[in-house]
């Protein structure tokens, strides 16, 4: 789809590769200026370089979303550079595919910090700015693992399920400020992280089985980016608190 996001500013977390990079490029292609967040400067700057021939401008902002001070600095730098934030995409995520009984507390803490606490920190910092302007779109990238559960992803599933529920609560609270909050739940998507998860014997067994159950196979990062574009555009202004599954039919029965 095409949208007119000229004059809009988006902040996309984890935008140095994979789904996040596709989202940043899609928003810039449709006119938005984009603050490209990642913990890896080289990756963030690569995304910005790819925006050179697009309509919107890119700006690399390096921050660890698991650290609140980093997050507040990121938001302050974005507002200073672009003047505002109209669209927030909480995309950054991380997972480790293994049986729950083999998880370590260190694994739990990292998954929870990135997938659950991170969006809390970023949303709090950004929404304070959006409330002042009484406008905004918040788009959270969850996972169908958070809707139906997934073998080998117990804590990750819990975090994404929590993000879905939290997004609905935010949608209710922020509506009075003209702020919409929606969720996109991808299924298996062809990203570097996906291939990393599939590189182990356990991961290959689980993910290969899931692929066989998906009528349309793996998603492309651009498939997720197109869904984000819809929620970022004025065409979705009458939609809030909703969850859109982009999983190629994998979970259509749920």
Keywords:
single chain; Rossmann fold; alpha/beta; 254 residues
Describe the 3D structure.
- With 254 residues, the protein is of the alpha/beta class.
- The protein has one domain: NAD(P)-binding Rossmann-like Domain (Rossmann fold), CATH 3.40.50.
- The chain has 9 helices and 7 strands.
- It has a 7-stranded parallel β-sheet with strand order 3-2-1-4-5-6-7, with helices on both faces.
- Helix 1 links the parallel strand 1 and strand 2.
- Helix 4 packs parallel to helix 6.
- The longest helix is centred in the middle third of the chain and has 29 residues.
- The mean pLDDT is 94.
Summarize the structure.
The protein is built from 9 helices and 7 strands; from the N terminus they run E-H-E-H-E-H-E-H-E-H-H-E-H-H-H-E. Helix 3 runs parallel beside helix 4.
CATH superfamily: NAD(P)-binding Rossmann-like Domain
Which strand order do you get reading across the main beta sheet?
3-2-1-4-5-6-7
By CATH, the architecture is named: 3-Layer(aba) Sandwich
Mean pLDDT: 94
Could you tell me the CATH topology label. Answer: Rossmann fold
Number of structural units classed as domains: 1
Return the structural class: alpha/beta
Run of helices and strands? EHEHEHEHEHHEHHHE
**What's the shape?**
globular
Low-confidence runs (pLDDT<50, min 5 residues)?
none
Q: Please give the share of residues in helix.
A: 40-55%
Q: How many helices does DSSP assign?
A: 9
Total number of strands: 7
CA-CA gap between termini: 27 Å
Largest sheet: 7 strands, parallel
Radius of gyration: 17 Å
Q: CATH class, anyone? A: Alpha Beta
Strand-residue proportion: 5-15%
């Amino acid at each position: 789809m095409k949208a007119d996001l000229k004059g809009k500013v988006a902040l996309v977390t984890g935008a140095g590769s994979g789904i996040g990079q596709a989202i940043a490029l899609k928003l810039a292609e449709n006119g938005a200026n984009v603050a490209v967040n990642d913990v890896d400067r080289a990756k963030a700057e690569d995304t910005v370089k790819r925006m050179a021939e697009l309509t919107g401008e890119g700006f690399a902002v390096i921050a660890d979303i698991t650290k609140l001070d980093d997050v507040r600095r990121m938001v302050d730098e974005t507002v200073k550079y672009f003047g505002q934030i109209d669209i927030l995409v909480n995309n950054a995520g991380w997972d480790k595919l293994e049986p729950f009984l083999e998880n370590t507390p260190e694994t739990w803490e990292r998954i929870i910090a990135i997938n659950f606490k991170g969006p809390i920190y970023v949303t709090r910092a950004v929404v304070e700015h959006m409330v002042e302007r009484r406008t905004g779109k918040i788009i959270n990238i969850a996972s169908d693992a958070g809707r139906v559960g997934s073998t080998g992803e117990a804590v990750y599933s819990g975090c994404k399920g929590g993000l879905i529920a939290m997004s609905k609560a935010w949608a209710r609270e922020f509506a009075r400020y003209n702020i919409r909050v929606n969720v996109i739940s991808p299924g298996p998507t062809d990203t570097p992280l996906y291939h990393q998860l599939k590189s182990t014997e356990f991961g290959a067994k689980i993910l290969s089985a899931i692929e066989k159950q998906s009528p349309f196979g793996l998603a492309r990062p651009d498939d997720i980016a197109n869904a984000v574009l819809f929620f970022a555009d004025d065409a979705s202004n009458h939609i809030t608190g909703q969850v859109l599954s982009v999983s190629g039919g994998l979970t259509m029965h749920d």
